[in-house]
Specification:
With about 500 residues, the chain is mostly helical. The protein is globular, with a radius of gyration of 23 Å. It has 24 helices and 2 strands. It has 3 domains: about 240 residues, Hypothetical protein af1432 (Orthogonal Bundle); about 160 residues, Hypothetical protein af1432, CATH 1.10.3210.10; about 55 residues, Arc Repressor Mutant, subunit A (Orthogonal Bundle). A two-stranded antiparallel ribbon has the order 1-2. Helix 13 packs antiparallel against helix 14.
């Protein structure tokens, strides 16, 4: 089966829809903001290169929020439900943040707990913001986007008045694309919530503070620019208006692009680090053992990379809940497979991947989700994907249990096959591909890391604290901190989330 070529804009727009879900906004929110950013850029007289930067920065602005999801969930519980309200709070301003905390009852916490929150919350938010920027920049680099996009993504938390984060730029030193997109995204939200009057209040209030006053003044003077937010088909409009050369992803580069997206999907949860790539690896080996032809193997591998795209629709607080899930929580979990399919059906080249990826939790006896398919509806590729996903999930820790051993995982799969849930042939192919007992899949040590530094990095990527890493490796927490600083220096990052991403890129976890 020959697939149509995939435009880079189609893949990035697809990812933007998934990040809309993960931040609590309506799907296509980023696409609408992108259209407004283009209108603003044109009104400012930007050249095509700058417009292209605005375009991709608008679509990727929230891709790095995987770095922030656990922090938000730890503070607010359901970070998705509160996402839009959080995003309405002006960046790095104490009074608006205190008002937000008051609305949600944080000032009614025990005094010691509230004081601890206030003492550590700002610093943790700064670290999360820097991590968001680093993650977004890494994704842009892996997708082959230029330095203008990377620079602007690094400036997304800066403020015109110099009171932003990381505080390296202010005023016109902030990348123009970042200044344009910051306003475009906020205006989209305020316009959606309160119309033109809310937008006017927003622009007057933040002009010269968070916002470039020239851009704010332009939009105040030309409210007709807001018509871009009313596009009836934002996907089609955004693809039609992409500035510049409109690149396609070469066939030989497509797997790496999809793996980059997979890594960012898995980055939201330390327990999922490397999960999608691990599933894809098992799928391709097991599928080959079962005689799938190359075109079928290609679709299977690529569907496996993207199968968990819909997990962004479920709050981190649900995924990390140690106790039983409520009926509502279970329903949200079941729907993540549905959202994987819906997100991937926009781009013609991704449709076959979406159709298959949506089946990763189906079972032969119709007890799976989200469609509850029966055996005749599930081909070999779907059966392999379901088994590989289940095996990798068993081998990874979850909130309600530790990782299962290879032997226990194999026994569970074979038992499920006997009960009619899994195809026994697919089970044996996956287990053979896994090579029981499972061998270590650690890659050669990258970036000049020592053996001990790799051990520390792997545990860090699994979400362990310095104390927990020290207990596992029988070293002092101070020694762990020393190793982490060396790791950061060698791999060129400054946050745990960026280090986790590096570990996944190098296939040190999974």
């Amino acid at each position: 089966m020959s697939l149509p070529p995939l435009r880079l804009a189609e893949l990035v727009a697809t990812l933007s829809i998934a990040t809309d879900l993960g931040t609590g906004h309506p799907m296509e929110r980023s696409l609408r903001a992108c259209l407004l950013a283009l209108q603003l850029g044109r009104a400012l007289g930007c050249d095509e290169a700058t417009l292209a930067d605005c375009y991709y920065v608008a679509l990727l602005r929230y891709a790095g929020c995987a770095a922030d999801a656990r922090h938000r969930a730890a503070l607010f519980g359901d970070e998705i439900a509160l996402g839009p309200e959080i995003d309405m709070v002006e960046l790095w301003q104490l009074e608006p943040m205190l008002a937000f905390l008051h609305r949600h009852g944080f000032d009614r916490l025990p005094a010691a707990e509230y004081q601890a929150l206030m003492a550590t919350g700002v610093q943790r938010s700064v670290e999360a913001a820097i991590g968001t920027c680093e993650v977004g920049q890494s994704l842009a680099g892996r997708l082959g986007l230029g330095p203008g996009v990377s620079r602007a993504l690094g400036d997304m938390f800066e403020r015109w008045d110099g009171r932003g984060v990381p505080g390296r730029a202010h005023g016109e030193a902030i990348a123009l694309a970042a200044r344009v997109v910051t306003i475009a995204l906020d205006v989209e939200l305020f316009y959606r919530v309160g119309g033109e009057e809310a937008v006017r209040t927003l622009l007057h209030g933040r002009s010269g503070g968070q916002y470039d006053p020239a851009i704010a003044t332009l939009l105040l003077a030309r409210p007709s620019l807001l018509e871009a937010l009313g596009a009836t088909a934002p996907w089609d409009a955004a693809l039609a208006q992409e500035p510049g050369p409109r690149p396609f992803i070469a066939e030989e580069a497509l797997d790496e692009a999809l793996r980059a997206v997979a890594d960012f999907v898995d980055l939201r949860l330390p327990m999922m680090s490397g999960h999608s790539t691990a599933v894809a690896t098992l799928c391709i080996q097991a599928g080959a053992r079962l005689g799938l032809r190359e075109p079928e193997l290609t679709i299977l591998r690529r569907a496996a990379y993207l199968h968990d795209l819909g997990t962004a629709s479920v709050s981190v607080s649900v995924w990390e809940k140690a106790g039983p899930l409520s009926a509502d929580e279970w329903e949200r979990v079941r729907l993540h497979a549905y959202y994987t399919e819906r997100v991937l059906l926009r781009a013609p080249a991704l449709v076959p991947l979406g159709r298959l990826a949506a089946l990763h939790h189906e079972r032969l006896d119709s007890t799976g989700y989200h469609r509850q398919c029966a055996a005749p509806q599930l081909g070999t590729a779907a059966r392999v994907l379901a088994v590989a996903e289940a095996y990798c999930g068993m081998r990874e820790p979850r909130a309600h249990r530790p990782a299962l051993s290879p032997e226990r995982s194999a026994a569970e799969l074979r038992s499920a096959a006997r009960d009619g849930q899994f195809d026994s042939v697919a089970v044996e192919a996956v287990l053979a591909a896994a090579g029981h007992p499972t061998p270590s899949r650690r890659a050669a040590r990258p970036a000049g890391l020592s053996r001990r530094e790799v051990e520390v990095l792997v545990l860090l990527a699994r979400g362990l604290t310095n104390r927990e890493i020290g207990e596992q490796l029988v070293i002092a927490p101070a020694t762990v901190d020393h190793h982490i600083r060396h790791i950061y220096a060698k791999i060129g990052c400054s946050t745990r989330i960026a280090a986790t991403l590096f570990a996944m890129e190098q296939q040190l976890v999974g």
